[in-house]
């Protein structure tokens, strides 16, 4: 028990800070500070921040992206193969911290939506997926699972992007991750199940070369909104990468209904979304 009466003025300030720190502890561990969940905020190349995953979670981001390379049996997180560092695995940077957080408070954000973990495969699709599937199996209790009886949502929804083993994934009766589609999946016949492809992603230049300077061309805005409506009509979310980190661009994406706003500037996007 801290004796606030005998600490003195300076000691009182220190004692209060200690007490405040203790106040956020629970029997099971640290209770994370409350933030406003931002389901539409996507941390592009999240692992390049000072605190991978944690910086995004501290700002309420609803989606984070990790690039992986299969190296000697390990799933190492880095953008390029020559940047991998032993120990910086998908488990160490993402899956283990997320599991710890969920054990402490039940969800990534209390009463918040499932967090999207976008896993961008940079190495060969088939062997990487085999290794990734076995890793994800060990975390199945916290993952959204896709099985013969339907979808069982978990605190984390893993989606595989990049080099994707489409046929192998589709053949599995039970999956621990979904498939990140592309724009041509919106017009594919027969239409892929939304439970297999719940998200469609595309390079921004497939829609527009506009970077936020001056007004967005009307024809580009019309195309953007048509794509969003098409995705939503099929029960899918939609995302664009390589968009400029500018509020002018985000305003157009937000107004069109784009589900995940891509950014490398976590603070700026958080501010933008909180203002809305």
Describe this structure in words.
With 276 residues, the protein is an alpha/beta fold. It has 2 domains: 31 residues, no CATH class; 243 residues, Phosphatidylinositol (PI) phosphodiesterase (TIM Barrel, Alpha-Beta Barrel), CATH 3.20.20.190. Helices cover 33% and strands 22% of the residues. Strands 3, 4, 5, 6, 9, 10, 11, 12 and 13 form a 9-stranded mixed β-sheet that branches. The protein has a two-stranded antiparallel sheet with strand order 1-2. The protein has a two-stranded antiparallel sheet with strand order 7-8. Strand 7 and strand 8 form a beta hairpin. The longest helix is centred in the N-terminal third of the chain and has 16 residues. The N terminus is likely disordered.
What gap, in angstroms, lies between the N and C termini? Answer: 43 Å
Round the mean pLDDT to the nearest integer and report it: 90
Q: Structural class per helix/strand content?
A: alpha/beta
Biggest pleated-sheet summary: 9 strands, mixed
Characteristic key phrases:
single chain, about 280 residues, alpha/beta, nine-stranded mixed beta sheet, two-stranded antiparallel sheet, 8 helices, globular
Brief summary:
This protein has helices at residues 8-23, 54-58, 90-105, 125-137, 166-171, 218-233, 247-256, 266-274, and strands spanning 25-26, 29-30, 38-43, 61-71, 74-77, 115-121, 145-147, 150-152, 156-162, 178-181, 199-203, 237-241, 261-263. By secondary structure, the chain is α/β, with parallel strands linked by helices. Strands 3, 4, 5, 6, 9, 10, 11, 12 and 13 form a 9-stranded mixed sheet that branches.
């Amino acid at each position: 028990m801290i004796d606030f009466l005998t600490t003195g003025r300076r000691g009182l300030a220190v004692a209060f800070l200690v007490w405040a720190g203790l106040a956020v502890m629970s029997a099971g561990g640290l209770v994370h500070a409350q933030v406003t969940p931002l389901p539409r905020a996507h941390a592009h190349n999240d692992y390049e921040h000072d605190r991978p995953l944690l910086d995004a979670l501290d700002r309420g981001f609803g989606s984070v992206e990790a690039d992986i390379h299969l190296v000697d049996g390990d799933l190492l997180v880095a953008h390029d193969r020559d940047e991998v560092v032993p120990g910086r695995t998908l488990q160490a940077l993402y899956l283990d911290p997320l599991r710890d957080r969920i054990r402490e408070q039940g969800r990534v954000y209390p009463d918040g939506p499932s967090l999207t973990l976008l896993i961008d495969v940079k190495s060969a699709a088939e062997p990487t997926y085999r290794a990734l599937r076995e890793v994800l199996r060990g975390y199945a209790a916290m993952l959204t699972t896709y099985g013969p009886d339907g979808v069982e949502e978990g605190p984390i929804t893993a989606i595989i992007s990049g080099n994707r083993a489409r046929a192998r994934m589709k053949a599995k009766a039970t999956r621990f991750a979904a498939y990140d589609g592309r724009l041509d999946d919106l017009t594919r016949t027969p239409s892929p199940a939304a439970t297999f492809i719940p998200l469609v992603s595309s390079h921004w230049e497939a829609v527009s070369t506009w970077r936020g300077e001056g007004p967005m061309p009307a024809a580009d805005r019309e195309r953007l909104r048509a794509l969003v409506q098409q995705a939503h009509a099929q029960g899918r979310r939609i995302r664009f990468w390589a968009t400029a980190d500018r509020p002018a661009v985000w305003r157009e994406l937000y107004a069109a209904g784009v589900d995940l706003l891509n950014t490398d500037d976590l603070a700026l996007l958080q501010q933008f979304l909180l203002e809305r």
